[in-house]
Amino acid sequence: MTLNNTIEIDIVKASSSKIASVDFENLTFGNIFTDHMLICDFKDGVWQKPIITPYEPFLIDPSAKVFHYGQAIFEGMKAYKDDNDDVWLFRPDENFKRFNKSAKRMAMPEVPENVFIEGLKTVVDLDREWVKKGLGNTLYLRPFMIATGHGVIAQPSSEYRFMIILSPAKSYYSGEVKVIIAEHYSRAANGGIGAAKAAGNYSAQFYPTKLANEKGYQQIIWTDDATHTKLEEAGTMNVFIRINDTLFTAPTSERILDGVTRKSLIELAQRDGLNVEVRSVLVEELVNAAKDGSLKEIFGAGTAAVVSPIVAFAYQGTEYQLPQIENSFALQLKEDLTKIQYKLAEDTFGWTVKV
Ligand SMILES: *Cc1c(COP(=O)(O)O)cnc(C)c1O
Fold first, then answer.
1. Residues in Cβ contact with 231 at an 8 Å cutoff, skipping those fewer than 6 apart
2. Mind listing the pLDDT tens digit for each residue in 80-121?
3. Does the UniProt entry include the keyword Metal-binding (predicted)?
């Protein structure tokens, strides 16, 4: 770390910790937050000094642009504790770069690297007791930025707030996930904001996902908006498809979010000597592979669940089951990745960063 990377952060510590009241064995994802949060405001064209304060609500003008025009972006990442009580981040530079890519697309100011990275390390270090040891225990980190400038005129805000909040999480088993292939609704379109982690992308998914839930499906596999013939993402995860022994995932694009899990799994699969092809899979190919038995696995990939195996998909009213298989690529790659994240395997890629 060079000297000009260090940053001064004012810290106001919580007078007492909430940690004793938390049942770490029974956590609902994203529901409980740690003792502290980081705030850094942008005004008069510059980022102000970051502060860490006790986690608490804050005042915001009702005309703030975040409420009216949805200028809001976020990241999702995790901290892990190894057996020596050291705390690690996983590829935080990737989240930092993606955050600023999202900021640019939403006409928001880019956050300085030291505010994002040093801010993360400082607040995680302060709440390191909240990172529990043992596979599956993590601290979910949520950096985000909202437009705080007042006035209901439809133009970019001149004031913003960058924040980091932290939520303890246990790896979750989401139950059996069945998906519907999108035939009408879209998550993203060319020229749109699908490659950004912009808040509006997620609210736009809620209604079609609710319709899928009512039919007994947990998620939607999104297809390209123009033709609905190419498989793109699964819910809010990237998607992998295994046909025979080849693993396919779509190339990232304006419509497909550049997931850190996706890109890490591709590298791990290549390291393990698996056959990986980065290309779009057609819905037609998927249906044919399901019919002739060559379709082995479909799984989502993302920070929250790491991998999420899919047991069945529906297309044009027909449901297709995935087979039960022994040598699951999904589980192998999940194990490869989590071992690196928890420092149980050597990190030959240089992905882990100590807090
Ligand atoms: C966040 C996200 C992903 C997964 O990204 P990770 O960096 O792996 O967590 C995939 N698709 C969408 C739409 C996302 O928002």
1. 181, 221, 222, 223, 239, 241, 250, 280, 281, 282, 283, 286
2. 999 999 999 999 999 999 999 999 999 999 999 999 999 999
3. no
Q: Which segments of the chain belong to CATH 3.30.470.10?
A: 10-171
Would you state the structure tokens that stand for residue 125, as one six-digit string?
Answer: 């270090």
Q: From residue 269, how far is each of 104, 272, 273 by CA, in Å?
A: 32, 5, 6
Q: Where are the alpha helices (DSSP H) in 59-215?
A: 65-69, 92-105, 113-126, 199-214
> What six digits make up the tokens of 287?
């249906």
Ligand 1 centroid to residue 136 C-alpha, Å:
19
In 3D space, the residue among 30, 47, 29 whose CA is nearest the CA of residue 38 turns out to be 47
- Give the span between the Cα atoms of 224 and 269, in whole angstroms: 25
CA of residue 262 to ligand 1 center, whole Å? 8
CATH code for residues 177-341: 3.20.10.10
Which segments in the chain show pLDDT lower than 70?
1-5, 172-174
Cα(194)–Cα(256) distance, integer angstroms: 6
Among protein residues, the one with the nearest Cα to ligand 1's atom 6 is: 259
Alpha carbons 157 and 252: distance in angstroms, whole number: 29
Q: How far is the CA of 303 from the centre of ligand 1 (A)?
A: 7
Ligand 1: lining residues by beta carbon, under 6 Å? 76, 197, 233, 236-238, 257, 259-262, 302-303
pLDDT at 7: 84
